[in-house]
Queue: 3 jobs
Job 1
Amino acid sequence: MLIKSKSLSDAAWKDLVAKHKLKDNGLLKVLEKLKKFGDEDFDDALKALDEASKLAGQLKKDKAIAAAPPAAKYIGDLLGAADTTQREITKSKADADKKKAEADKKAAEAAKRSEAEDGDDEEETPELLTTKLKPLLRLVMKGETVHALLAKAGKRVVVMLSRKPIPPARRKLLNDQLGGGSTKYYPGHCTTERGAVTFVLKAEVAGMSKLVKAALLEQTGLRVNKIKCRGDDGDDHDDDEGEGELPAGAAPGDDEPGADALDAKAQTIHQAVLAWNDSTASATTELRKLQQLVLGLGDPRAAPVAKGLESILQRLGTVDDEAEAAATAARAGDAAGFDRARDTLVAKLRNIQSYVETDELIKEADSNPLMDIRLSETLGQSIKAILAALA
C-alpha cells in the first residue's frame, strides 16, 4: 500500500460525518481511493492527493466544520498529511524513475557494446581503408574530429580513420595493405585547422604531408588540397603547400581567400555564433527549470546538486569576443589577421566541445528523470556548426 498515514483514513472521516451530522463534499470517496493504490501507482496517488487537498480546503471554510472541533482538527491534520505524503511520493517516483533510467541506460550501453563488438568483427576488411574511409574524411572537412592511425613503409603511407579509438589489432590490416615488411605506425587524430585537413600524430612528422595526400587520393579518390601533419605537442609540423595540385574547377590563387570570400566567411561566422548564443540561452532556461525541480523534491541533498548544475552555465562561457575578432579581420580583408583570430576561436571552441562531450554533470543532467533535457546534443551541434563555418 502506497499511502499509510492515519490522518488520511477514510474511516475516521466517515465516523465524524455521521457523529456530527456533517455534509461530505466528495472527500470520503477520494479517501477510499487512496488506500487502494499500489506501491508504484505514483501518478494516480498524486492526483488523488491533490483532489483530497482541494476538497479538504473547501471543508475548512465550512462553518459546520468549524463548529465541530474534532472535525476541524481532522481536516487540519489531513491537509498537513496530504502535503507531506505528496512530497514523499514525488521523491519516491523520482528515485524509481532514476533507477529505471539507469537500468535502461545500462541495457542500451550493453547492447551498443555488443553491437560494436559484432560490427568490429564484420568490418575487419580492406573497405575500412577505401569506401568506409571516404565519408569519415568528408566529416573531417566539415569540422569534426576523428581518431586516426597512419602506417608508413618506405615512401608509402596508408590512412585509417574512425569515430572510435582504433585498437592495435587494426595495425595488421594497414600492414597487409602496405605489403608487409617493416612498418612504422602513427596514432593520433584528424581534424581541420585553418582550412587544412590536419593529422595530429604522436611521432615525428617530417615529410609526411605529401605522402598522406597521395595516400588519401589513392584510397578514396578525393584530392584534398591542403594537408598538414603535426606532432601532438604542436612543436613539430609538416605543411603541404599544394604543389600546384588543385581541385577540379579551381584556378591558381584560389587557395588564398580574396576579399569577397573573407566577407562571406564573416557573415557565416556571425550567423553561427548567433545560433550558439541561442543554444546557450536555451540550455540556461532548461537548467534553471531542472534546478527548481530538484530543489522542489525537498531532499537535503538537492542544494549541492543545484549548485553543480549552476557550474555548467559558468563553464560554457561565450565566444563573442573571439568571433568578432575573426569576423572583423575577415571584413577588412586581413587574411593573416583572420587566421590568427580563427585559431584562437577554434582553440576555445575545442575546449568547450571537449567539456560538453565528457563532463559527468552534463551527462547526469541529460539522463535525469525529472524532465527531458539534451544539453550535449544541443550544444554539440551548435559548436560543430561554428567549427564548420571556420573551416
Job 2
Amino acid sequence: MKIGSGISQRLHARVLRNETGYAAAPEGRGVRKASGHPRASRMVAFSQQSVGMVGPGLKRFLALAGRNLEGEGLPLKAALYHGRRDVRIQEVEEPVPEPGQVKIEVRWCGICGSDLHEYRAGPVFIPREDPHPLTGQTLPVILGHEFSGQVFETGGGVTRVVPGDRVVVEPILRCGVCRWCRRGQYNLCAKSGFLGLSGGGGGFAHYVVVPEEYVHPLPGNLDFEKAALAEPLAVALHAVRRGQLRAGERVSIFGAGPIGLAVLLAAKAAGASQVIVSEVVMARREKAAALGADTTIDPRKESVPRVIRQVTRGAGVNVAFETSGTPGGLGDALRSLDKGGRVVVVSLWEDRIQVDFNRLVIPEREIIGSLGYCGEFPAVLALMADGRLDPYPLITRRIDLVDLVAGGFERLVQNPKEVKILVQPG
C-alpha cells in the first residue's frame, strides 16, 4: 500500500493497530492527545497539512475515524423528539465539552417508561413553549437518560475521570443553589429536569456532554449493558429507602413493568421476607416470579387484597409499592397493608383520583411519594458489581438507534411482553 509523504510506513502500521494514542484534531488545531482512549474508530495521528497526502487505505481509515478529507466532522445521528409519536433520527452537531464538563461516547441507552409516555401522550415533561430554566431549550430535544458509556474527552478542570474511563450518568438536572439543592435533596430542585427530556443532550446520540458531577465511574467488573440499567434501579432503591423497608418485612408491588420489577429486585436485596406482585400481563407475572416474587396475582381474576391476606396469614404487608399508575392499584395497595403499613407511590399520574382517608387514619397507615433518586447511584453500582442486584433478566431486546421508533417505541406500545429495550447509538 502506498503511503503519502509525511506519514511513514511504520506510523501507518501503528495506526491500523490502534497504537498511536492520538485522535483526529479539529480543523486548525493540529494533533491532540487522546489519553489512551481505546476506540480504534477514533485513533489516528495526522495533521491538517498531511490530510491531502495520504494513500487510499489511510484515507478510508480517516473517514472511519469520523473526519472527511477536508477536516470536517462526519454527520452524527441522534433521536430528537418533535411531538407526540414524532421522534426523528436526525443529524446533529458533535458536542464540545466546556470547562467542568465531560464528553461521553454512549454505549447503551435504555428506553424508559417516561420516554414511552412522552412518545404516546406527550409532551408532558419536555418543554414545548417555555424554555427549561436550566437548559434554555424547548422541543425538539434529544431523548434518552438511562445510559452508560466511555469518557471520550474532558473539559478544563475535570479531575474525577479521564478519557477511556467507563461511566454511567446520573441525569437529574439541578441548579445547585436552591434550598433543596443546598440540603442535598437535589431531586427536589426548584428548577429540576432530566437530561434527555429537558434538553441539554441525551443518551440516544453518539456523544453527550454532561457536568462532571453527574458522572459515576463503573466498578471494574460491571459491563455497559448492566450499567445502562443503573438509573431505573436507582429509582427502585430510592423508593425502597423512602418506604423504610427493613429486613424481614413483607412487600407487595402493584405493576410489574420495568420500575415494578426493579423495585422487586431492590426489595429482595434489602431483605424482604415475602414479595407479592399484582400485574395484569401474564408474561410480566412470569418475569416477576422468575426474579423471586413469592406470589403473583392477576387483579382481573382475583381480589388482590383477599389473596394477600391469605398468603400472609391475615396480616397484610408492611410496605406496598404502587408502580402501575392506576386508581385500582393504589386502592388495592391501601387495602393490602397491615396496620401501621406504608404505601410508596412511585408512579406518575395523568388524572386526579379519590382516596378513602379512613383507611389511612384509623389504622395509622402512610402514603409516601418517591421521586427519582438522590444519592443512590453509588450504592446501585456497588450492588450490581457484587451480584446482589442483577438487572440482566429485565433486558428483553437490543436494537440500533435507527430502529428506535419501530423496534423500540412501537414495539413497547404493542407488545406488553417487552420489559427493557436497550439502544446502541453508535
Job 3
Amino acid sequence: MNETGFKKELSTVDLFCMGLGSSIGWGVWTQQADWFVMSGPVGTALGVLLGALIIIPQVLTYCKLINLFPKEGGCFRWSHEAFGRLASFFAGWYLLIAYVTIIILNVTAFSVWLKMLIPNLIEYRYIYSVGGYSIYLGWVVAATLVCILFVTINCRGVKFAGKFQTVVVMGILIGFLGFLLMAFMRGNPAFITDPSPFSLKNGPSKSIILWVAIAPWAFCGLESVSQGFGEAKTVKVFKVWIPLLFFAVFIYSSIAIITAMAKPWDQMTGEWLATATAARIFSGKAGVSLVTFSVFFAIVSGINGFLVSSSRLLFSMADLGLVPKIFSRIHPKYKTPCVAIQAIGLFVIITTFFGRGILTWFIDISAFGQASAFVFAGLSLCKLRNRFKLSQWNTLLGSLSVMAGIFFLVLLVTFKMALTGIIAIIAYTILGLVCFQIVSRDKKIRIR
C-alpha cells in the first residue's frame, strides 16, 4: 500500500491504457464532421501534431514532478507543495471540473450511442426540455444506469478498474486498426484535399490554430497517469507518457485522414458520426458495426478513466483539508476512495437531467482548467527546483510549460470561447473562492 492507504495494483500496461483510453474517447470518433468544418482534414492532422509538440514540455514537467511526489493528486499536490493552500485549491478546482466534464460528456454520449441502436428506448416518455433539448425518461435511465455501473466497478478496487480499462482499450485499438485497413484497401487519398485540405471558411493558418486551441481538452487523458501513479507498481513514468502521447497523436490524426478518404469531406459535414459514414462506404454494414462498437469502447474507457482520475483528485484535496474530509474516506476492503467516487457519480447523474444542451459551458471550463494545470505545474517545478537542488534545465522546462499553458489560454479566449463560456469560468471561480473561504474558516486557517 502507499502512504494514503491505496493498494499498488496498477501495472505499466494498466497505467498506459488508463491514459490512452481517457485520451482517445468518444470525440475522436464523433467529432470529425465538426472538425472538418473548423479545420479540414489536413488542418485537423496538423493541429493535432502542433498541439502535441507544444504539450511536450508539460509531459516532461509532469515526469519530473511525479518522480518527486509519487502520489495521487498530480498538479494539485505539486502546487500544494510549492505554493500552499490557495494556489493548490484552484489548481485542483479547475482540474476537477475538467475531469468531471469529460465523464458527463461520455455518459450522455452513451445515451446518444444507444439511441442509434434502440431509438424508441432512449426516446421513451418525454419529460421536459432544457435549452431546446428534449429530455426523455429513457435517456435519463440509460445514463443513470451506466453511471451506477462504473461507480460500482471503481469502488470494487483499482485493479478491477485497471484491468477493465486494458480490455476496453484493446477493443479501441482493434477498431482503429480495422478502420485503418479498410481505408488502405478502399479509400481514395484524393478526397483528403477535395474540396480543400483546410477549412473552407477559416483558411490554412486559422484552421490549424483552432484545433491547437482545443489540444488541452483533447489530450486531457494524459492526466490520468499522474492521478493513478500512486496506485501503480514500480513504473518508469517516462516510458508511459512519451509513448502515450505518440499513440494519441497518431490515432487522432489518422482517423481524421481516414474519414476524409471516403468521399469529398464537405459532403459529411453536419453528420454526428462521419466515421460511420466513411466505414459504410469502405465496407458496408460490417464497417459501420466496427465503428459503432469502437465508439462504445471509447465512451466507456472515457467514463472509467476519468472516474479514476477525478476521484483520486477529490480524495487528495480532502486528504489535505481543502474540501470536506469525508471525501478522503477509503473503503475498508477494496481500499478505494469510495465516497469520492460515489459523490462524483451522483453529480454526473444529476447533470443528465439537463441533457447535452448545457455541456458547452462545461467544455469551456474543462479546456480552461486543463490549460491552467499546465501553468500551475510549470510554476511548481520552477519553485521547487531549489528545494530539491535540481539543475537549471528544470527552470527552463518549467518556464516552457508556463508559456505553453498561457498560450493555450490565450487561444481559447481569443478563438474558441464565447461570452457564455467566459461567464461560466468567472462564476465557477467565484464559487471556488466561496468554497475555499468556508473550508478555511471551518479549520481556522488563514488564506495565504
